Amino acid sequence: MSTAQIPLIFERGQAGRSQSRLPVSGAPGAEIPPALARRCAPRLPQLSEVEVARHYSALERRAFGVNNGFYPLGSCTMKYNPRLNEDVAALPGFTQVHPLQPAHTVQGCLAALRQAETMLCDITGMDAMTFQPAAGAHGEWTGLLLIKAYHRARGNSARTKMLVPDSAHGTNPASAAMAGYTVVNIPSNAQGGVDLDALRAAAGPDTAGLMLTNPNTLGLFDPNIQEITDIVHSAGGLCYYDGANLNAIMGVARPGDMGFDVVHLNLHKTFSTPHGGGGPGSGPTGLKNFLRPYLPGPIPVEGPDGLAWQPAGAESIGRVKGFYGNFLVVVKALAYLYTLGREGVPQAAAHAVLNANYLMRRIAHLFPPAYDAPCMHEFVCTLAQLKKEHGVSAMDVAKAMIDAGMHPPTMYFPLIVHEALMFEPTETETRETLDEVADALAHIHAQALADPNALRAAPRTTPIGRPDDVAAARAPRVRYPRPESEARP
Ligand SMILES: *Cc1c(COP(=O)(O)O)cnc(C)c1O
Questions:
Q1: 270 lines ligand 1 (CB under 6 A)
Q2: How many domains in the chain?
């Protein structure tokens, strides 16, 4: 990768060098009130067509995605998504439809939603699912509104607290707060699971529910899961399962069987839509039968003349998004499920778990796992000792990985692990790739001992190496500063 800065497209332009010359129009001009009319022409860069093409190709080469190399972003399942599923979702029968079309003209689309619901309910152990939520956090919030509606329908207004373990994804406490709950933090035990005594002490008549992901964000499956959901149920609360990342257990273990009442999935992680990049997502919320009255609507149902839209019931929490959610993302998930089939879904999960354990064991002598137990889809190592003894941090190692042609893993998360690096190789990496990664990490470790300063200067192969993370997030400069000479009159 070149380390030279790419000038902004505004800095490249030359006056008079545009690519399109429109013919003079014979139509009368529009009358625009002077107060609304521009006083000067918009300042657009003027470039030739090939300059524009080269500019964007150069930017594209600076991006690093799953097509470029190893991409181990844990807790996110930034995995490779088969192209076939994009082709299926691009079929005109799915794209050339309007949400207000009469149901009898879009029977295939309704059937796709029904089939996806059946399969994903089968995978999660739920009885019904709404595809309206557009993202994981949106699905969480929807699920919490279902829980709230349930307690309200039983005349129970004292249940104001949501229990959330300290290893939870950050969206869990945020969604609970958005849904009007007070968040109660439950600490982890020494094995990285939920501390049962702390849970028992916290659960009571003010408990609305528990939000949990299992395997948790440490990549560990909680062996006490049945007891955890029992404790919450005995206290009268409901159990919410964060299924954003289902990569370890899909087709193998079902949240419904673990005692969960509500689940959300991120189709844009596990089920073949890329996560990140700002594209549309889908965070369907699944629920057990007793919560059905509160479902957002309308929902597709079998009618006398085929599939039809059934409006939401009187007790529904109402719509959480326009129409039926991001439908084409659901189509991609359905294509993925059909191509994998009943055998392929658990096999993909098994490979994801095997790959994570393989890589964890290959590097454990250099980068020890935070919890020394078999992991699920991801594992977290701690570099606290390396930092203490050699002054090389998790950040330094992550930056060195960029120079080695790999995307850095998730860093400093979850917060309960010091100097954390979290790896999620996913099911599609080969053993050869994992061996290359382990060798590259061993090389970085050797460098950390031999020449820590060199590592602290990484990356050397990128135009920008160590931006001020906090300033970049809190005060981003995303606007081109117009030179004074070009200021508006
Ligand atoms: C990604 C993720 C979420 C949030 O999903 P978004 O679509 O980003 O809102 C929630 N929980 C877990 C465990 C996740 O990995």
A1: no
A2: 2
